[in-house]
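Folding problem:
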Amino acid sequence: SAYTTASARPPTPTPTGRGPRRGGGVSNSRDERYAACVGRFYEELAEQLVEGARRVFDAAGAPLDVHDVPGAFELPLAAKYCAESGRYAGVACLGAVIRGETDHYDYVCGETARGIARVALDTGVPCAFGVLTVDSMDQALARAGGGKRHQGEDAARAVLRMAGLRRELTP
């Protein structure tokens, strides 16, 4: 399902709070929307990743549409649909792959990463790899806001920065 954050857009914040910043900030052009494609195989992790990404997009005044897919393997195709739609300045791909007892983990991680990168390179629309690739649920939780870092927030910041770079360099 898809849902949208529709709220009044606050002034675009800057990392220092001291006015506009070029070359590294995560501000948003007022007319740009963003997408988050979310692999829902691990629902609890997916929700935490979306919450983190939403905080960053909201702070930048960037409207966000969330599009759910079954798992990480489906993220590249969902990102392609979003990128080719012309509706989004960038796509944050969020999800998790946790190592099991078979080689399945290696195939899913490799193809997901490769596919997301290919979408970005083929379309020119920034696509961030916000997919946890870990050995255990404990490692995943630590990287979804549980102390180490927040992969959802990191992916949102990457998409905003790359969209900003595209704006700066594209006439």
Summary: The longest helix spans residues 104-123. The two ends are 35 Å apart (CA to CA). The beta strands are 2-4, 34-39, 64-69, 90-98, 127-134. Helices lie at 43-59, 75-85, 104-123, 137-142, 151-169.
